[in-house]
Amino acid sequence: xxxxxxxxxxxxxxxxxxxxxxxxxxxxxxxxxxxxxxxxxxxxxxxxxxxxxxxxxxxxxxxxxxxxxxxxxxxxxxxxxxxxxxxxxxxxxxxxxxxxxxxxxxxxxxxxxxxxxxxxxxxxxxxxxxxxxxxxxxxxxxxxxxxxxxxxxxxxxxxxxxxxxxxxxxxxxxxxxxxxxxxxxxxxxxxxxxxxxxxxxxxxxxxxxxxxxxxxxxxxxxxxxxxxxxxxxxxxxxxxxxxxxxxxxxxxxxxxxxxxxxxxxxxxxxxxxxxxxxxxxxxxxxxxxxxxxxxxxxxxxxxxxxxxxxxxxxxxxxxxxxxxxxxxxxxxxxxxxxxxxxxxxxxxxxxxxxxxxxxxxxxxxxxxxxxxxxxxxxxxxxxxxxxxxxxxxxxxxxxxxx
Length: 402
Prior knowledge:
25% of the residues lie in helices and 20% in strands. The chain has helices spanning 28-51, 64-72, 111-116, 136-148, 150-156, 167-170, 182-192, 255-266, 295-308, and strands at residues 95-99, 121-125, 161-164, 209-213, 220-224, 235-236, 244-245, 272-276, 313-317, 323-328, 337-341, 359-364, 369-377, 380-388, 394-401. The strands form three sheets. It has a seven-stranded mixed sheet with strand order 4-5-8-9-11-10-12, with no helix packed on it. A hairpin with a 2-residue loop joins strand 13 and strand 14 (380-388). The longest helix has 24 residues, at 28-51.
């Protein structure tokens, strides 16, 4: 409250202030007029004090983390303890669903369509939430809101979930190895994925992981790379066209993860391998984040695939707010290499066209999720790559026969 005392001259000396207030008779009207508004102003505070009701204080501002925790309805439950389907690698994978780019503030209405396909596995390819924060409380609270939501539970009550973050759930837009909160990001992702607390995944640096599902000829290996935790710095282009200059010396995975990946590809009994990357591997014409921003790292990955020759490897990617399938023929690899991108569970990009010399089929600029349906002929898989929409309609289907 601001009170102005215009009638008190600033130049009055302390010694000049009278000890008693007295007004000549002719100034009593003036005194009443001066004091009466102040009495009216202070009277409610006096009355509250007499009645034992102190003035109301402004409510304490709720933190962002508290707001998300309240919305989740699970403030007293640890993120890792929220019920979810158990991962059982002994089961065959016949149907795999995947997606990326999911904003919590937008309708979470894609999940009934995903669940309607009864997938054996759901794979997150990043931007599970859009947190963009180094505050672990906010990050955890936002994950908790999603994991507790009735819409998402339609899927996770029956379908196990694996996956990895991209930049917005890692904590920094376009972020890489320099993110100071990356250990928290890894730990909270593991909690969201219900990874057991004694799992080796929680002891390593980085969120890369692999699983071999099924038995005999129908084994499927899912390899999830972490393209954030060890990734070198992007080189921004001041003109923004393209957004980044190629970082010829930069790396995507870090040496520890490269060694792990080589071992996973070599020691691989599966007849189908799904290699997961949060950003696109094959598509290289666009100016956004991609393996192509680190040309030597991209060459190294493609060379590793050729040298190890895993049986029938297929890449899944996200990030782009659209869906497309890219195809590349590599000398020395006895089958075409596909990169199936699905992105935009809650939103889509602007612009209907974009150059991609490797694209087969159309670029789908609609909210979508991806589906892999695997049909076996002995040890030979045929994979139907499908782009599905909000009403579970199939926007595009492409068959890869191995």
